[in-house]
Structure formats: C-alpha cells, structure tokens
Write a structure and sequence with these properties.
There is one protein chain. This protein is mainly alpha-helical. It folds into two domains: about 200 residues, no CATH class; about 90 residues, no CATH class. Strands 1-2 form a two-stranded antiparallel ribbon. Strands 3-4 form a two-stranded antiparallel sheet. Strand 1 and strand 2 form a beta hairpin. Helix 3 runs antiparallel to helix 4, helix 4 runs antiparallel to helix 7 and helix 10 crosses helix 12. The longest helix is centred in the N-terminal third of the chain and has 23 residues. The protein is elongated and about 80 Å long. About 25% of the residues are buried.
C-alpha cells in the first residue's frame, strides 16, 4: 500500500482491506460450510476498520468518551463499533449502504456461535452488496488505487441452491430465530431501498456465444444505473423470460408440496408450536387450519370444482394427472408469517366466523 497516508490511517485501512480479502477468500472456498458466518464476521471488522481510517483522516478520534476523557479498557482506547461508526458517517441520511450494514450487525451477533449454512443462498445478495459498497466507499474517500477489486477475480460458479428459508428451518431448527430476524428486517425496509443494488445486489448470469476476439474479458459487469432507457427495457425483457422459465419448472411438480408436507413445514417454522385448545395442548397448525387458510385466502377452488385449474399460482398448482392440489414454498412462508401473527391466528377462532 502507498505510504502517503498518516500512520494511524494507513494501519486501519490496511487492516480493513486485509479483512475484506480474507472474507472473500473464506466465502469462495468450496469446502467451507461456515461461509456466511466467516464472511460476515470478517466484513464487519473490515467495515469498522475502514470507518476508523476515515475518521482518523478527518481528524476525528473514533473513541468513546467518559466526560472529557477518552475511555480505556485493558490499557487501550474503547473504539467505536460498527453501528456507532455507521451512525456517525451516514448521519442525517437514509443511505441504502447503511441499511445493508445494519442488516449484518445483529445477524453477525446471532451467527457468531452457530453454524447455519442453510441461509447462505438466501442472503447472498446482501453479502455481495456489502463487498461492493466497501470498495465504493474506499474509492470515494481515498481513490481507486486503494480498492480491492483488482485483487479479486470471478469465482467459478455452479447453479445455486434453490432452498428457501422455510426448508432451512426444517433442516436446522436452531436457525429459526435467525430466519425470523431476516424476514422481519427485510419487511421493515422501505421498498425503494430494498430494491437498490447498494442494499441487495442481484444479477443474471447469462451464457453468451464465444466472442471472435480472443482477448475479450469472459465476464463483464454492466452497471444497470448507467444503461440507457432502451437497454433497461431489454434487461427487463430478459428478467421476464427468466421468470417465465422458472415458472415452467412447476409443471414437473419440482419443489411443490402436498398438503401434509405444508402442514409439517408450517408447524416446524412457527415460533410457538403448541397452544391450548379445549383444555388440551395441541399443534398450533394442523390440516384443518390449512384447509381454512386456502379457503380464506382463496388459493384454490373447492374439491369437485368444474374449474380446478383456477388457482393462485403464487401459492398453489393443480396436478391434473393425479387430480390433486400441490403447494409452493411461498405458501409455506406466507402461512408461517400469518400464523405467527396472533391476531390473525385468533381470528380463525372467533365465534360465528370460521368453524375450527
């Protein structure tokens, strides 16, 4: 690293860059199961050190004060942690970069002593933004020459897992509080921020024909915000095509669930699994309540309907050869969210409404 920076700035910046590079190295190791945990922990260190370097450069000491004196613990200053740094740096703004960081601070604390590889795929977009934003702030505060992107290359890719958060709960019940936090945090974000690349980076990796020029870069990144209106419309068409192809997977009943499986997954995904009903401790969610739910939310028609295909394809499909209704993982996640809402759940038991 160039030596033109003050010592405390340079040391903090070096630590930040090294931590980020180690985070990426851990995440890209194929045999490592603690991908997200290791990555997030090191990226929290990287971001904290980056902010410290910025504050030092601005003549601000990122230490806590007690009265007029800086606090010390075990002979060293009490440095600001990441949340304090982000609050100071983004003061008075609603920056999606800060929203992204605020997602990882409690998540890092939750996964510190757990191994939950089941969530890796689902939080990949936020993890990617956390890294891209890191380089963006370095370029803004210092210059491109301090960025780490030149040290990194594209990782070899396989098709990602299609596991949902609901299946993660089934595989590892200990992940339930973490998944509850992820759902709750995302639902609390302003849609304008949620859809930015700075909060959550999502992309289509599309295979193209080999270029005639041998020296052409095999993978190129195109910033959506810098595209023309016509180019953005073309990207939108590609997204639509991909979504339609994804829907076609359901024809073969891939990832669709029978009612009994829905009941099992919803029951396992609930925070409170047992309730008192008529003097007995029973499962909170059962087949009877599932039937009430698909009727109440108009997910599918009644049995024997002349138009059995009239279903809400976000949640349900009709399997004509087997004359049965199958349900999506989105239906499971929706039910978990609804059934965890005590007001919604109890409304099914109001006298004179639905008969449970």
């Amino acid at each position: 690293m160039p030596r033109g920076l003050p010592k405390n700035v340079r040391i903090s910046l070096e630590k930040a860059r090294d931590s980020a590079l180690l985070a990426v190295e851990i995440y890209n190791k194929p045999a490592v199961k603690f991908k997200s945990g290791g990555y997030i922990s090191l990226m929290v260190i990287a971001w904290t050190s980056l902010f410290h370097s910025i504050f030092f450069r601005r003549g601000i000491k990122p230490f806590y004060k007690k009265g007029r004196c800086y606090e010390k613990r075990d002979g060293d200053y009490c440095y600001w942690e990441l949340k304090k740094c982000a609050d100071e740096y983004f003061e008075g703004t609603n920056d999606p970069i800060k929203t992204n960081l605020m997602f990882f601070i409690p998540l890092r604390n939750m996964i510190e002593h757990k191994s939950v590889p089941e969530i890796d795929t689902d939080i990949f977009a936020e993890c990617q933004s956390m890294l891209l934003n890191f380089d963006k702030i370095i370029a803004k505060e210092y210059s491109e020459k301090y960025c780490i992107k030149e040290c990194l290359s594209f990782a070899l890719q396989l098709y990602p897992s299609t596991k949902s958060l609901s299946s993660a709960v089934l595989e590892n019940p200990a992940s339930s509080p973490i998944i509850d936090f992820i759902r709750s945090y995302r639902s609390s974000i302003d849609p304008d921020i949620l859809n930015t690349g700075e909060y959550s980076f999502k992309a289509f990796l599309i295979q193209v024909a080999n270029h005639e020029t041998k020296n052409t870069v095999p993978i190129q990144f195109v910033n959506y915000n810098k595209l023309s209106d016509e180019e953005k419309r073309n990207v939108g068409r590609i997204a639509t095509i991909i979504k339609e192809k994804t829907k076609s997977l359901y024809i073969a009943n891939k990832d669709l669930l029978k009612p009994s499986k829905v009941v099992q997954q919803v029951q396992n995904g609930l925070r409170i699994k047992k309730i008192m009903r008529r003097g007995k401790l029973v499962d909170k969610f059962n087949m009877n309540i599932h039937t009430i739910c698909w009727k109440y939310y108009e997910v599918r028609p009644e049995n024997g309907s002349e138009s059995p295909e009239n279903v809400n394809n976000q949640y349900c499909y009709f399997d004509e050869p087997n004359a049965q209704y199958l349900y999506t993982n989105e239906w499971v996640e929706f039910l978990i969210s609804e059934m965890d809402n005590d007001e919604v759940y109890q409304s099914f038991f109001v006298e004179g409404s639905l008969n449970v």
